[in-house]
Write a structure and sequence with these properties.
With about 200 residues, the chain is mostly helical. The longest helix has 14 residues. It is about 70% helix and about 0% strand. It is elongated and about 65 Å long.
């Protein structure tokens, strides 16, 4: 394009930045700098891709710099923006910050969706914080979203390991009612919980 004298647009950079994020943060930053050289203002798609790239590698400071730049430029945040920040905190083991981010989302009128809750439940399970994962799972179900079967099984396994059989029963019962999976062991769990 450069050789032909064709000036790229912001839409040129959308697939480049998103697609190259798998190749590493250096390439993403190079493309971002190149975009700025063309006097192209980053939009929500670009910001989200770069914030996600930084959060994924644990560079939360840079992710927040970009997030604040996004706000300063009056580029509207969305669920994906917050998902990336939540994911970054979960990867770094900063679990308490996730609730603050969800509260911030809600304050901005961005309702958590199934992806939000799946990220939260899976992330807390990964960190062996099954009590908080259970709380997020309950909120998810109360908001009429369904956890993925794999995440639900991971949560149930963690709660069982910790001897939290009442929580296991609640999750299994709700999943059975929703017809999500074969939760046939619920009778066995009921017997164990009563002893």
């Amino acid at each position: 394009m450069k050789k032909l004298g064709i000036k790229p647009t912001i839409n040129t950079f959308h697939p480049l930045i998103s697609g190259c994020s798998r190749q590493g943060i250096e390439l993403v930053e190079t493309l971002f700098t190149e975009m700025l050289r063309f006097n192209l203002a980053p939009d929500r798609v670009v910001y989200n891709a770069i914030i996600h790239s930084h959060a994924k590698i644990g560079s939360l400071r840079k992710a927040y710099e970009l997030y604040h730049g996004m706000i300063d430029r009056r580029v509207q945040t969305d669920n994906m923006t917050y998902h990336s920040l939540i994911l970054g905190h979960l990867r770094e083991g900063e679990l308490s910050e996730t609730k603050d981010l969800v509260d911030s989302m809600k304050a901005k009128g961005l309702a958590p969706n199934a992806n939000t809750y799946n990220i939260l439940v899976k992330g807390h399970c990964y960190r062996k914080d099954f009590g908080v994962a259970y709380i997020w799972c309950r909120e998810m179900i109360e908001n009429n979203f369904h956890p993925s079967v794999s995440i639900c099984k991971e949560l149930v396994a963690g709660l069982k390991q910790e001897g939290r059989l009442n929580e296991v029963l609640v999750i299994c019962s709700e999943m059975k009612v929703k017809g999500m999976a074969d939760w046939g062991s619920i009778e066995d769990l009921s017997a164990v919980a009563e002893t």
